[in-house]
Specification:
- The chain is an alpha/beta fold.
- The chain has two domains: about 140 residues, Alpha-Beta Complex (Quinone Oxidoreductase, Chain A, domain 1), CATH 3.90.180.10; about 150 residues, Medium-chain alcohol dehydrogenases, catalytic domain (Quinone Oxidoreductase, Chain A, domain 1), CATH 3.90.180.10.
- The strands form three sheets. Strands 3, 5, 6, 7, 8, 15 and 16 form a seven-stranded mixed sheet that branches.
- β9, α3 and β10 form a beta-alpha-beta unit.
- The radius of gyration is 20 Å and the shape is globular.
- About 45% of the residues are buried.
Length: about 325
């Protein structure tokens, strides 16, 4: 079977190492499922992996893409959960940007009811990140204040949705009023446009919280936003480090953590499940259940044809799009 895929054949900063290739399908094992991919979604780590800047560095060449959705074509002899025609999602560190895919039965989950293939492809990574961050690592409680940076991106939207669901007061930040509309639709209570250098952000958060500050900060951006966050933490707060989409890895004046009594907590959702498989399975079931109830429905900000993968990556790098970017077959 001819199978087109986007593969990273060499690391590069300009996407020149991302090539469309014919990629052979492995033989279908007894516990494997073959699916036809209908849509795939981009995440910021996808860009970093083509540059060799992500913590997971697969050997070259590798098929790019962390998540996709499609329909089951055939199943191995020992597969019990799936049947041809089932709509399923796939999440992994790679392998999603392809027309056909063979994966273990355990690596798939159902497309949530009411989600189309693009939404099914786009929700898994962001939803799991939000769940591990806010529930497992941040212990967000009803009535607390949650500050979400990058709230127009896929991960930020998922954090706003979950924070609202958990009963927190959600303050969302983004670089433009247009982008903040995605956070508003996801349930944010307050919207703050971030100006150059995050000027005035800490003061605005304190104003909105009557001087108390944020109990939990969800930060996938880093840089200036991290710096501003340490100045508006509530006593006993948790500053969650999700990533560094802003480009600069910030440093922390440790005296502020001492004086304010807050914690800086690293979040790696995938690694959490690998280190603790039992908790990882609990996380997966919880995310699936919430998605089936309609939570975690992603904002699809742009749809590209499969042949336009490089253009999709460039849009991701330029941070032009509110919501998720999807490739459609």
């Amino acid at each position: 079977m001819k199978n087109r895929a986007w593969a990273c054949v060499e690391l590069s900063d300009d996407l020149s190492g991302l090539q469309r290739v014919d990629w052979p399908l492995p033989a279908l094992g007894p516990q494997d499922v073959q699916l036809r991919v209908r849509a795939a979604a981009l995440n910021f780590p996808d860009l970093l992996m083509t540059q060799g800047k992500y913590q997971h560095r697969p050997p070259l060449p590798f098929v790019a893409g962390m998540e996709c959705a499609g329909e089951v074509q055939s199943v191995g002899a020992q597969v019990s959960r799936w049947r041809p025609g089932d709509r399923v999602c796939f999440n992994a560190h790679g392998g999603a940007f392809t027309e056909h895919l063979v994966a273990p039965e355990s690596a798939l989950r159902p497309v949530p009811p009411g989600f189309d293939y693009a939404e099914g492809a786009a929700y898994g990574v962001t939803a799991m990140t939000a769940w591990v961050a806010l529930v497992r690592r941040g212990a967000l409680q009803r009535g607390e204040t949650l500050l979400v940076h990058g709230a127009s991106g896929g991960t930020g939207v998922a954090a706003v949705q979950l924070g609202h669901h958990l009963g927190a007061t959600v303050i969302a930040t983004a670089s433009s009023l247009h982008k903040l509309q995605a956070a508003h639709a996801a349930g944010a209570d307050h919207l703050l446009q971030v100006h150059e250098g995050a000027a005035g952000l800490a003061g605005e958060v304190k104003r909105l919280t009557d001087g108390r500050g944020a109990d939990v900060v969800f930060d996938p951006v880093g840089g200036d936003l991290f710096d501003a966050s340490v100045h508006c933490m509530a006593w006993g707060g948790r500053l969650l480090v999700i990533g560094f989409a802003g480009g600069r890895i910030a440093t922390l004046p440790s005296n502020l953590a001492l004086i304010k009594g807050f914690s800086v907590v690293g979040v790696r959702a995938g690694e959490y499940g690998r280190r603790d498989p039992a908790r990882g399975e609990e996380n997966r079931r919880a995310v699936e259940a919430l998605a089936a109830q309609g939570l975690f429905r992603p904002t699809i900000g742009a749809r590209f044809a499969f042949e336009q993968a490089r253009e999709a990556y460039r849009a991701l790098a330029a941070r032009q799009v509110a919501g998720k970017i999807v490739l459609q077959m």
